[in-house]
Amino acid sequence: MKYCYIDESGNPKIKDARPFIVGMVVFDSLDAVNEAIKEIEVFRRRNNIANDYEFHFSRNSSKNKNRYRIFIEKSGFNTKVFIVKKHPNQDSYNTAANEIVDYLDSNVAYNVRIDSNPLLFKALRTAFRAGKIRAKITQVNSKNNDLIQVADYVAGAALKSLKLKKLP
Prior knowledge:
Layout: E1 2-9, E2 20-27, H1 30-46, H2 62-75, E3 78-84, H3 91-103, E4 109-115, H4 118-130, E5 134-140, H5 146-161
Parallel strand pairs: 1-4, 4-5
Antiparallel strand pairs: 1-2, 2-3
Helix pairs in contact: 2-5, 3-4
């Protein structure tokens, strides 16, 4: 079984030129998940960051964003970004969910955690069924899940890098 943590950045309901982005972190085993959590705990201790501090890309200072970016890059976490052209409705979530299904292996079972977004949850559930992806999908609060925070950071950093760019 593989473990996925998913979060989005951007708002697909706003009509602007910025893309809607979904970030994902994938682990090959529960042991790898536990090791990643330990690495984050060590990072927090080394940097005097409280255990309840949330690494939320849009709310963190530049200093913390940079420290966390370096940590993620060095960690070797398997991260993936899905960029969806702007859509002013549910289509953004459906498109992202379909891209995730295309990326995943239908021969593997997944345990998926997503931030508490009911529209993305519904789109993933529908796409997983249609794509015959065996997955248990659970909504969680990012404040209580360090690995959702990694996915948020990956998505947020990707969105920021495209902030001034308009997709065709």
